[in-house]
């Protein structure tokens, strides 16, 4: 079985193969969140708090250096989790249960294979400014394949993953076309149009967007996602969840892509 529950922002609870996985935990209240000389503004809190989420088997942390992907309450939650998979730099900074998962290396979590994959948080050459980011691919014998993009803005990166992994059943795409003064007019995450194109590149049967609302630096949202997927002719693939809503995407016996790799 595969279910995805959208909590808000970049945070979702993925249940796959009997394992519970939480993406980028953000549980703080709305407000201003400083980041260097700048600040990010959170406009809404999560639909479900950490106590209601309960224990998970692992946290999939795309990166730790930005408060819209790991806030104060999220840090507390991650520190108490049995396992956090993230970037090498996050493992060095956070320590505790955080384990680095380099690109194309895998960690087996009781039958769910979690592979680190590239992510580019902005235009070419932006990593020295924005820091290291990662995505994830989830696979397992008899299980659907899930791609979690993290804060990726590059379709070239998506093409690389599609070429190496093959078709995916579910793409969890961080969208919203985030923009800040750090990289000018460039997107820091996928635009709605790019998310629809990513769905085609990946051959994804279902697309669950995350990280497209609840922060002021997003320039696109639900309406632009719906429009972009309609224009691309893949509206039926879009699973645009409301905060707190859960989608059951696969049940035992459903057909899905073959295990790649």
TrEMBL record:
Location of the Metallo-beta-lactamase domain: 19-212
SUPFAM superfamilies documented for this protein: Metallo-hydrolase/oxidoreductase
Tagged with keyword Hydrolase: yes
Signal peptide: none
Superkingdom of the organism of origin: Bacteria
UniProt cross-references to Gene3D superfamilies, sorted A to Z: Ribonuclease Z/Hydroxyacylglutathione hydrolase-like
Pfam families reported in the protein's UniProt record: Lactamase_B_2
Keywords associated with the record: Hydrolase
InterPro entries noted in UniProt: Metallo-B-lactamas (IPR001279), RibonucZ/Hydroxyglut_hydro (IPR036866), UPF0173_UPF0282_UlaG_hydrolase (IPR050114)
Name recorded for this polypeptide: MBL fold metallo-hydrolase
Organism whose genome encodes this protein: Streptomyces humicola
Lineage: Bacteria, Bacillati, Actinomycetota, Actinomycetes, Kitasatosporales
């Amino acid at each position: 079985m595969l279910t995805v529950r959208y909590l808000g922002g970049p945070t979702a609870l993925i249940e796959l193969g009997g394992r519970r996985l939480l993406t980028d935990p953000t549980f703080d209240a709305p407000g201003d969140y400083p980041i260097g000389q700048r600040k990010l503004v959170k406009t809404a809190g999560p639909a479900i708090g950490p106590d209601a989420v309960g224990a998970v088997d692992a946290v999939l942390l795309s990166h730790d250096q930005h408060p819209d992907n790991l806030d104060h309450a999220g840090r507390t939650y991650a520190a108490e989790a049995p396992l956090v998979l993230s970037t090498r730099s996050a493992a060095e900074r956070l320590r505790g249960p955080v384990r680095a998962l380099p690109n194309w290396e895998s960690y087996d979590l009781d039958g769910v294979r979690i592979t680190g994959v590239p992510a580019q948080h902005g235009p070419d050459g932006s990593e020295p400014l924005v820091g290291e980011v990662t995505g994830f691919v989830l696979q397992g014998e008899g299980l659907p394949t899930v791609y979690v993009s993290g804060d990726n803005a590059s379709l070239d990166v998506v093409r690389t993953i599609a070429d190496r992994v093959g078709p995916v059943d579910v793409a969890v795409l961080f969208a919203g076309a985030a923009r800040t003064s750090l990289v000018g007019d460039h997107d820091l995450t996928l635009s709605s149009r790019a998310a629809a194109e990513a769905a085609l590149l990946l051959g994804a049967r279902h697309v669950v967007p995350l990280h497209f609302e609840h922060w002021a630096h997003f320039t696109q949202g639900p309406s632009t996602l719906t429009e972009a997927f309609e224009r691309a002719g893949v509206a039926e693939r879009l699973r645009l969840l409301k905060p707190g809503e859960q989608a059951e995407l696969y049940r035992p016996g459903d057909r899905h892509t073959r295990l790649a790799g």
